[in-house]
Design brief:
419 residues; alpha/beta; Molybdenum Cofactor Biosythetic Enzyme, Chain A; Molybdopterin biosynthesis moea protein, domain 2; Molybdopterin biosynthesis moeA protein, domain 3; 4 domains; six-stranded mixed beta sheet
């Protein structure tokens, strides 16, 4: 059975993604490199990182107050306080050179090291001065209260960061706290972007009737950067088999993924699918998906390098990238965490108007988000297909599932946030 464009029956988004990801273990991936942590933000760890020491390496106060043996405070109340003698003040960054005996207490600041004989800290606000040498404790503390114990944050040899983790600022801070200044990470994968079409001209050139400026290579550049890759714009190319074939061959030699925009529909000059199949095995994995926008999407693999043919429609480029390309690019980047599941970039909201949808396709509609009486509402940005500024106003795309004929105002929908 063929669709209206003459292609075999379309497959679902889920099936297309399943086919694509089945090749994930075989895909070509970048090498690893040892980098200073300051140069590693956003990169993916290629090895587990273990703590070289206990953190903290001493028992440390979490509050301003007095280091104490908790047994000396048992039963203390505001009516019947415990009277304790101030032995000393613990200075920040210094190791106490004394031991607390029974009935003694030492002033300490947040982060200070507990002296021998102390097992907890009384908060300053739970004490009252009697004189320069004595305080009243108005509330008891339990052993270990208001104290971070040796190794409580990290034990020596403990895995702090697993391989496949995208390094964030807080991760770099934790590594620095452990004295780790370098990390093994994967290099960012190079992604070639090829724009095709006789009608496409550079954005700095005037357009003649029938021509349009290049939009998609600029959109893809940002999407690739956000997903952790390095975009390599190969240029604009007319719809000629040998020209496109040559640039695709060059891209396959020098990158980890190839994106071709335009040339994915069925037409006399639509060459992408043929070129992919001519490049090597397995070639095209799917051509045409039950998706709007994005129906002509092509997904393929050539010699363990993923290669995609994206529709020329700018909105379809965004939708297809998020559904098909980002998951593959994250795998090639070395990501091995559920944090990057698609669901982590989606929210639930109520649709702000009735929307109809054709049967047999998953439809994505640009929306803005509004808060109304404590609930999140998705307001559709309706316009003719092909309008290029619609997504600049959008916070995300609302998804109308494959087997639904539309949604009613107030119905809960999934919104995939735009990055």
């Amino acid at each position: 059975m063929r669709d209206m464009l003459g292609r075999e029956e379309l497959i679902t988004v889920e099936k297309a993604l399943e086919i694509l990801l089945s090749y994930a273990p075989l895909l070509k991936r970048p090498d690893e490199i040892l980098l200073p942590i300051n140069d590693s933000y956003g990169l993916i760890t290629s090895r587990d990182i273990n703590s070289p020491e206990n953190l903290p390496s001493f028992n440390r106060s979490t509050v301003d107050g007095f280091a104490v043996n908790s047994a000396d405070t048992f039963g203390a109340t505001e009516s019947f306080p415990a009277y304790l003698n101030i032995k000393a003040e613990i200075l920040m960054g210094e190791e106490p050179q004394f031991k607390l005996e029974k009935g003694e207490i030492a002033k300490i600041a947040t982060g200070g090291m507990l002296p021998e004989g102390a097992d907890s800290v009384v908060m300053l606000e739970h004490t009252q001065r009697v004189d320069e040498k004595m305080i009243e404790v108005l509330k008891p503390v339990s052993p270990g209260e208001n104290v971070i114990q040796i190794g409580e944050d990290a034990m020596k040899g403990e895995c702090i960061i697993r391989s496949g983790h995208r390094l964030r600022p807080q991760d770099a801070g934790a590594l620095a706290g452990l004295g780790i200044t370098d990390a093994w990470v994967y290099k960012k994968p190079l992604v070639s972007v090829i724009s095709t079409g006789d009608e496409i001209v550079p954005p700095d050139k005037p357009v003649r009737p029938g021509q349009v400026r290049d939009i998609n290579s600029y959109t893809l550049t940002g999407l690739i950067l956000n997903a952790g890759g390095i975009p390599v714009k190969k240029g604009l190319f007319i719809d000629k088999y040998e020209i496109i074939k040559d640039v695709v061959e060059d891209s396959l030699r020098n990158s980890y993924m190839v994106l071709i925009t335009g040339g994915s529909s069925v037409g006399t000059k639509d060459l992408t699918a043929k070129i992919i199949n001519d490049m090597g095995k397995p070639g095209v994995l799917f051509h045409g998906v039950s998706l709007k926008p994005g129906k002509p999407m092509i997904g393929g693999v050539v010699d363990n390098i993923p290669i995609f043919g994206l529709p020329g429609h700018p909105a379809a480029v965004n939708v297809c990238f998020e559904i098909f390309i980002r998951p593959v690019l994250e795998i090639q980047s070395g990501v091995n965490e559920k944090r990057f599941d698609r669901g982590k970039r989606t929210i639930q909201a109520r649709i702000a108007r009735n929307i109809s949808s054709g049967p047999g396709r998953e439809e994505h509609i640009g929306v803005t988000l509004e808060e109304r009486n404590g609930e999140l509402w998705a307001v559709p940005l309706l316009g003719k297909s092909g309008l290029i500024t619609t997504l600049t106003k959008a916070d995300g795309t609302a998804v109308i599932p494959l087997r639904k004929l539309g949604v009613q105002e107030g119905e809960i929908v999934e919104v995939r946030l735009l990055t």
